[in-house]
C-alpha cells in the first residue's frame, strides 16, 4: 500500500527530465525529496499526481496503476501543495479553503467543523475574511497547506483509518522558522493517522532530521537514498 | 507526541472561531434573489413602455383592445424575451470564459467569439440558400452556423493560449483584435461574393437589432440559449477550483479536459444563438460579470446565476431605452451597450494593469 513511482523516465519537450527514477511514499512515514534546482523534483511530484504520464516505468497507488484511478478518486486519495499556486480572481481565504473540501452527499461530515479545526491548527484564523490575493507569500502557503489538509480530511476523521497521501512541493519555501516548524510538524502529525507524506525540501539537514527517508535527486537520476541517512 | 491529536484528535475542545464572515459572502444569496426581482421588474417595465402606450393591467383584466393585445403579445413579448435571453447568454458566457481563461477581459465580443459567430451566420445567409433543406429546419440553420463559428474561435483561442502560455491579462485583447480582423475579412469576402438579394439580407442582418423578433424566430434561439446555460451553471464549482491553476484543479478532482470542453461548447452555443438573431451586442459579457464580482465576490456558484440575471436586466433596460429615447425611431441596442461599456472597459484596463 504505497504511492510509488518505479523506474520512471520522463521527457518534457526535448529535455529528458527524469531517468529511471524510483520513489516510494510509504504510509505513516515521511519521505523527503531533495536535490538542486532543476533536478526534476517537481516533475516527479507531478508524475505521482497523475498530472503527467511517464514515458517509461510506472506509477501506482496501492498496487493499482494510477491511470486506472479516476481524477476524483485520486483527489480523495492524495492532496498536493504545489510550488506555485496562482489565483486569478479575488477570492476570499474562506472560499479558497472550501475549494479543498470535496462535497460528498453520501458522507455528512461537517465542513464547518473540519474547517474550524484545520484553521486553528494551521493558525490562520486571522486570515479569514481577507482576500487571498492580498496575502503575503508565506500566508498563501499556509492557506494552501490548510486547503490540502481539508481535501483529505474527511476520511482521516472517520472511524476507519484509510491510507492517504500528502504531497508537498517546497511547502516551506516562503515560511519563517516558526511557520516552517508548524507546517512540518503538522505534516509529521498526519503520519499518526497513516498518511504517507512526501515533502520536497532544499535543506538537506532539515530533511535528514525531519524525514524517515531521504531521496536525493540530481539531474533526473536518484543519486542517493537512505533510511535516516546522513550525507 | 501529541501533535497528532492536536491535528486530528476530537479530544481537543475548540471554541468555534467567531469569524467575521465577509459581507460579500454573507449577502450573496439574497443578492442573487434581489437580481431575480430586478429582472422581473425590468421585464414588466419593458413590456409596458414603447411607442404605443399599453396598460398591462388592462391586458390582465382582459380589457385590452385587439391592437394593444397584438402589440404586447406578438411584438413586445418575444422581443423582451429575446433581449433578456441574449443579455443573459452574453453575460453568462462572459463570466464562464473569464473563468476558463482565468482572465477578467475575456468578453465574447472582445476576444472574437461574437465575430466568429457573425462569420458563421453570414456564410449560412449568403451561401446557405443553395442548400436544399426542409423548411422546418430553416430557423435553426443560421443559429447553428453561428454556433459553429463561435465554437471554432473559442476552441482556437483556447488551444492558442495553452500552446503559447497563459494569456496575460491584456494579451487576450490583442489576440481578440487579430481574431476580429480575420472574421472581418471573411465577412468582407462574403459581401463581395454574394448576389444582390444575399447582400441585402446580409446587410440587414448585420445591422443587428431586436426589432425583428417574432415568435417563430425567437423560440428556437431562446431554447438553444437555455440549453446552453445548463452545463455552464453545473460546472460552477469546477471553475472556482480552476482559478488555482489547471494542475491544482486536477489535483482537487476536476476533470479539466471535460470542464474545458463543456465551457467552450456551451458558451459558444449561447453566444452563437444570440448573435445569429440580433447581431453583435458589445460589452455585456465584460461589464456584467465585473459588476457582479464587485458586489458578491468571485465564487462562480453565485457569480454565474447573478451575471445571467443582471445581464438580462441591463440588456432589457438598454433595449427599452433604445426603443423609447427617440421614439418612434429606434437606436441600435449595441450603441447603447457600447456607449456604457466602452468607458467601463477603459477603467478596467487601468485597474487590471499589472503593477
Ligand atoms: N514543460 C517543460 N518543458 C521542458 N522542460 C521542462 C518543463 N518543465 C520542466 N522542465 C525542465 O525539467 C527540469 C526539472 O524541472 P523541475 O521543475 O522538476 O525541477 P525541480 O527539481 O522541481 O527544481 P526547483 O528546485 O527549482 O523547483 C528543469 O530543468 C526544467 O527546466
Ligand atoms: Mg520544483
Describe this structure in words.
The complex is a heterodimer of chains A (231) and B (355). Chain A has 231 residues and is an alpha/beta fold. Chain A has 8 helices and 10 strands. In chain A, strands 6-7-8-3-9-10 form a 6-stranded mixed sheet, with helices on both faces. Chain A has a 4-stranded antiparallel sheet with strand order 2-1-4-5, covered by helices on one side. Mean pLDDT of chain A is 88; it is low at 157-161. Chain B is mainly α. Chain B contains 16 helices and no strands. Chain B has helices spanning 3-8, 23-26, 28-48, 56-60, 66-101, 113-127, 138-163, 171-193, 196-206, 215-234, 236-242, 246-251, 256-278, 284-296, 300-324, 333-352. In chain B, α3 (28-48) packs parallel to α15, α5 crosses α15 (300-324) and α6 (113-127) packs antiparallel against α7. Classes of the chains: A alpha/beta (231), B mainly alpha (355). The interface between A and B is large, with 50 and 38 residues. The structure holds adenosine-5'-triphosphate and magnesium ion. Residues 41-42, 83, 169 of chain A line the site of magnesium ion (MG).
Outline the secondary-structure elements.
The complex is a heterodimer of chains A (231) and B (355).
Chain A (H helix, E strand, L loop, with lengths): L2 E10 L2 E11 L4 E5 L6 H8 L7 E6 L2 E2 L5 H7 E4 L11 H8 L10 H12 L14 H15 L1 H5 L6 E6 L7 H14 L4 E6 L3 H7 L2 E6 L2 E7 L4
Helix pairs in contact in A: 3-5, 4-5
Chain B lengths: L2 H6 L14 H4 L1 H21 L7 H5 L5 H36 L11 H15 L10 H26 L7 H23 L2 H11 L8 H20 L1 H7 L3 H6 L4 H23 L5 H13 L3 H25 L8 H20 L3
Helix pairs in contact in B: 3-5, 3-15, 5-10, 5-13, 5-14, 5-15, 6-7, 6-8, 6-9, 6-13, 7-13, 10-13, 11-15, 14-15, 15-16
Bound molecules: adenosine-5'-triphosphate (ATP) and magnesium ion.
Amino acid at each position: 500500500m504505497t504511492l510509488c513511482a518505479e523506474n520512471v523516465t520522463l521527457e518534457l519537450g526535448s529535455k529528458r527530465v527524469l531517468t529511471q527514477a524510483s520513489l516510494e511514499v510509504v504510509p505513516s512515514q515521511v519521505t523527503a525529496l531533495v536535490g538542486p534546482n532543476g533536478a526534476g523534483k517537481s516533475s516527479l511530484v507531478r508524475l505521482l499526481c497523475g498530472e503527467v504520464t511517464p514515458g517509461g516505468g510506472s506509477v501506482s497507488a496501492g498496487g493499482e496503476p494510477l491511470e486506472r484511478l479516476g481524477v476524483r478518486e485520486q483527489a480523495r486519495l492524495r492532496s498536493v501543495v504545489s510550488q506555485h499556486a496562482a489565483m486569478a480572481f479575488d477570492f476570499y481565504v474562506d472560499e479558497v479553503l472550501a475549494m479543498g473540501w470535496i462535497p460528498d452527499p453520501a458522507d455528512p461530515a461537517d465542513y464547518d467543523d473540519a474547517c474550524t479545526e484545520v484553521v486553528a491548527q494551521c493558525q490562520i484564523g486571522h486570515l479569514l475574511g481577507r482576500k487571498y490575493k492580498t496575502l503575503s507569500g508565506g500566508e498563501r502557503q499556509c492557506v494552501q497547506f490548510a486547503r490540502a489538509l481539508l481535501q483529505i480530511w474527511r476520511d482521516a476523521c472517520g472511524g476507519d483509518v484509510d491510507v492517504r497521501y500528502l504531497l508537498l512541493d517546497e511547502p516551506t519555501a516562503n515560511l519563517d522558522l516558526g511557520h516552517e516548524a508548524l507546517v512540518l510538524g503538522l505534516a509529521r502529525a498526519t503520519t499518526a493517522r497513516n498518511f504517507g507524506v512526501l515533502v520536497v525540501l532544499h535543506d538537506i539537514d532539515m530533511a535528514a532530521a525531519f524525514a524517515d527517508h531521504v531521496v536525493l535527486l540530481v539531474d533526473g537520476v536518484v543519486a542517493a537514498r537512505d533510511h535516516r541517512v546522513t550525507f | 507526541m501529541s501533535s497528532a491529536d492536536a491535528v486530528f484528535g476530537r479530544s481537543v475542545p475548540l471554541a468555534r472561531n467567531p469569524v467575521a464572515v465577509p459581507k460579500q459572502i454573507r449577502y450573496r444569496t439574497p443578492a442573487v434573489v434581489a437580481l431575480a426581482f430586478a429582472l422581473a421588474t425590468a421585464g414588466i417595465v419593458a413590456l409596458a413602455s414603447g411607442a404605443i402606450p399599453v396598460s398591462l393591467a388592462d391586458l390582465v383584466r382582459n380589457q385590452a383592445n385587439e391592437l394593444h393585445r397584438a402589440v404586447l403579445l406578438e411584438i413586445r413579448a418575444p422581443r423582451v424575451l429575446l433581449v433578456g435571453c441574449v443579455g443573459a447568454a452574453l453575460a453568462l458566457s462572459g463570466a464562464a470564459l473569464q473563468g476558463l481563461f482565468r482572465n477578467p477581459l475575456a468578453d465574447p465580443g472582445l476576444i472574437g467569439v461574437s465575430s466568429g459567430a457573425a462569420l458563421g451566420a453570414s456564410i449560412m445567409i449568403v451561401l446557405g440558400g443553395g442548400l436544399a433543406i426542409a423548411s422546418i429546419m430553416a430557423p435553426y440553420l443560421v443559429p447553428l452556423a453561428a454556433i459553429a463559428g463561435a465554437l471554432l474561435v473559442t476552441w482556437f483561442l483556447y488551444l492558442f493560449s495553452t500552446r503559447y502560455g497563459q494569456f496575460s491579462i491584456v494579451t487576450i485583447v490583442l489576440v481578440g483584435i487579430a481574431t476580429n480582423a480575420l472574421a472581418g475579412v471573411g465577412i468582407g469576402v462574403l459581401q463581395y461574393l454574394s448576389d444582390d438579394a444575399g447582400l441585402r439580407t446580409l446587410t440587414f442582418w448585420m445591422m443587428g437589432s431586436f426589432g425583428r423578433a417574432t415568435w417563430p424566430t425567437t423560440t428556437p434561439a431562446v431554447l438553444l440559449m437555455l440549453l446552453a446555460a445548463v452545463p455552464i451553471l453545473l460546472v460552477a464549482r469546477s471553475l472556482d477550483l480552476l482559478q488555482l491553476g489547471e494542475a491544482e484543479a486536477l489535483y482537487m478532482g476536476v476533470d479539466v479536459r471535460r470542464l474545458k470542453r463543456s465551457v467552450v461548447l456551451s458558451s459558444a452555443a449561447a453566444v452563437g444563438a444570440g448573435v445569429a438573431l440580433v447581431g453583435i451586442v458589445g460589452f455585456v459579457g465584460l461589464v456584467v460579470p465585473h459588476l457582479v464580482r464587485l458586489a458578491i465576490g468571485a465564487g462562480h456558484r453565485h457569480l454565474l446565476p447573478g451575471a445571467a440575471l443582471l445581464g438580462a436586466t441591463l440588456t432589457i433596460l438598454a433595449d427599452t431605452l433604445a426603443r423609447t429615447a427617440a421614439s418612434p425611431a429606434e437606436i441600435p441596442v449595441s450603441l447603447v451597450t457600447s456607449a456604457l461599456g466602452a468607458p467601463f472597459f477603459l477603467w478596467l484596463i487601468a485597474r487590471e494593469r499589472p503593477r
